Amino acid sequence: MVFSIKAIILENQKILPDFYRMVLAVPSIAREAEPGQFVMLKTSNTLDPLLKRPISIHRINKAEGTIALVYQVIGRGTNLLSQITQGELEVMGPLGNGFYWKKDYKKVAIVGGGCGIAPLPALAEELVKDGKEVYVLLGAQTREKLLCVADFQQLGCKVQVTTDDGSYGTKGFVTEILQEFILNTKIDQVYCCGPLPMTKGVIKLTKENLIPCQVSLEERMACGIGACLGCACKVRNEDGTITYKKVCHDGPVFTSSEVIIDD
Ligand SMILES: Cc1cc2nc3c(=O)[nH]c(=O)nc-3n(C[C@H](O)[C@H](O)[C@H](O)COP(=O)(O)OP(=O)(O)OC[C@H]3O[C@@H](n4cnc5c(N)ncnc54)[C@H](O)[C@@H]3O)c2cc1C
Ligand code: FES
Predict the structure, then answer these.
(1) Which member of 21, 33, 82, 223 lies 3.0 to 4.6 Å from 227 by CB, making a disulfide possible if both were Cys?
(2) Burial of 105 (0-12, 13-18, 19+ CB in 10 A)
(3) What is the whole-number distance in angstroms between the Cα of residue 59 and the centre of ligand 1?
């Protein structure tokens, strides 16, 4: 059973025009958290908005009992969140199932796009600690929406970037550099988090090249703990039959072979 607990806000700073980085002191969540998991945050002290908002865990510091989040301001909840500078925040987590890796993986690739990049530094940190060679391929619309490049570089990952408008890195989509990259490098696992068209492209390329892939999905969420069925997504079982799973409880990370993304 996961309960709401109070976290102390240590930092909530604008890092890009629409993005904030928040650091919370919340030892019980930091202790349990794994890369790819998320928290549900209460964004105001009133009943409006009523529902907590899901945000992925961006960095985990178990020694200091803190987690960091990176979020984009897109609506009422995240706008209210961006205005809180100190005090306490009601948080529930860590929630969902995160990414996995195996000891024998040597080279892995992380592919992130848009605000889907936010949870990936926590993953990169663990993969680097476990001795993997970590390649990071990032995509954003423009330089002003490009997250976490310095986080990955400081961890020692090999980073390539695309922007739609060419304002940073290579002009184009991240799937275009992934295609070239996997032709030239033997990769044991691809990890992906980003907008649906990107995720779809990554699933197609990894399937064609027989590379195992894990993807993190997003759905609108109400409860975050598997109780409301609000975040159901269509998946394919091993025997080919189709069923539904809950992104909050069974995901957000799934193996690419089970994910079905409708057009
Ligand atoms: C598991 C999970 C992890 C997430 N992690 C992050 C993160 O690390 N950083 C980050 O910036 N965002 C993340 N999100 C998205 C974030 O939860 C939404 O942006 C946020 O809930 C919007 O709340 P709001 O009140 O500001 O906007 P609302 O007023 O609720 O909505 C504003 C607009 O955003 C759209 N929207 C709302 N929720 C989602 C969603 N889940 N997916 C796609 N569109 C949505 C709505 O359709 C609407 O158009 C995550 C979502 C999930 C499900
Ligand atoms: S958000 Fe309620 S079941 Fe997933």
Answers:
(1) 223
(2) middle
(3) 19
So what's the architecture of 107-216 in CATH?
3-Layer(aba) Sandwich (3.40)
Q: What is the pLDDT of residues 153-162, one digit of tens each?
A: 999 999 999 9
Topology of the domain covering 218-263: Dihydroorotate dehydrogenase B (pyrk subunit); domain 3 (2.10.240)
The predicted pLDDT at position 240 comes to: 87
Is there an atom of ligand 1 within 6 Å of 221 CB?
Answer: yes
Contact criterion met (CB below 8 Å) for 67 and 38: no
**CA–CA separation, 172 and 179 (whole Å):** 12
Using the mean position of ligand 1's atoms as its centre, give its distance from the Cα of residue 70 in Å.
12
On the question of pLDDT at 100 being above 80, the answer is yes
Residue 219, ligand 1, Cβ within 6 A: yes
In short, whether 117's Cβ falls inside 6 Å of ligand 1 is no
Q: Determine whether the shortest distance from the Cβ of 110 to ligand 1 is under 6 A.
A: no
Any atom of ligand 2 within 6 Å of the Cβ of 228: yes
CATH 2.40.30.10 for domain 4-95: yes
> Relative to the CA of 224, which ligand 2 atom is closest?
1
Which amino acid is residue 27, in one-letter code?
P
Both tokens of 95, joined, read 């929630």
pTM (two decimals): 0.95
